[in-house]
Amino acid sequence: MEIVICKTKEEASKLAAGIITAAVQKNPKIILGLATGSTPVPMYNEMAKAVKAKKVSYKQVKTWNLDEYVGLPGTHDQSYRYFMNKNLFEKIDIKLSNTHVLNGMAKDPVKECAKYEEQIKKAGGIDIQVLGIGSDGHIAFNEPGTSLNSRTSVVYLTPSTIKDNARLFFKGKENEVPTQALSMGVGTICEAKKIILLAFGKNKADAVKGMVEGGMSQFCTASALQAHNDAWIFCDEESASKLKLRNYYAWRSATKLGL
Ligand code: PGA
Fold this sequence. Notes:
By secondary structure, the protein is α/β, with parallel strands linked by helices. 33% of the residues lie in helices and 15% in strands. The strands form 2 sheets. A 7-stranded parallel beta sheet has the order 1-10-9-6-2-3-5, sandwiched between helices. A 3-stranded antiparallel beta sheet has the order 4-8-7. Helix 1 (9-26) crosses helix 2 (41-52). Bound molecules: 2-phosphoglycolic acid.
């Protein structure tokens, strides 16, 4: 794991977007794994700026997203399909038919998950996977207690995730948040060749500490990234504030990135 500690989330988002832009320039047919949530939005804006400036094109890029709520159609303003269309896909030159989000309305959700795994495999696997982290240490909707070998499946949200996400739903009501989702598994995520996880704000400090300096455990599913050989964790000062070795990580990553 490489821990990159920036002063602000804007600075971290620019750095992470720069890595993705350079990777797409190098391989215009790259396969990206994408995430929703408020965390990646500044990075998506930076990626869109590079497209507008004609530095890069996503015409041949294919994407697979991490997860989707069960019971929300792609037209619902809280569905992750809707989020991706608004926050990234409509701002870049990607073909919508090359973008994949699990279908939360699938009649047979188990089959939908198996199909998704198959599609990713057929495409040759994910080259770069973007991740956020939940305040409880989850990646995608892999809540504490999920096997670190899990595959894409139907999952239940914990009360703490429902509480975190309620802010985005109608009047912030927790009972508006779906209780189930379809989610890529931890094992599926860890097969990506490169991982970029973004974590910003005080609310993520405990989760970042658990992921980086706690033992590898199903009670913090992000800790599975400790076993990945190309995982980059982009933090701001607040989310990195509880790391014991933060000065060492900052020095090491600055050296590796030539900052
Ligand atoms: P957030 O969500 O970016 O909205 O904080 C992150 C997550 O739950 O993975």
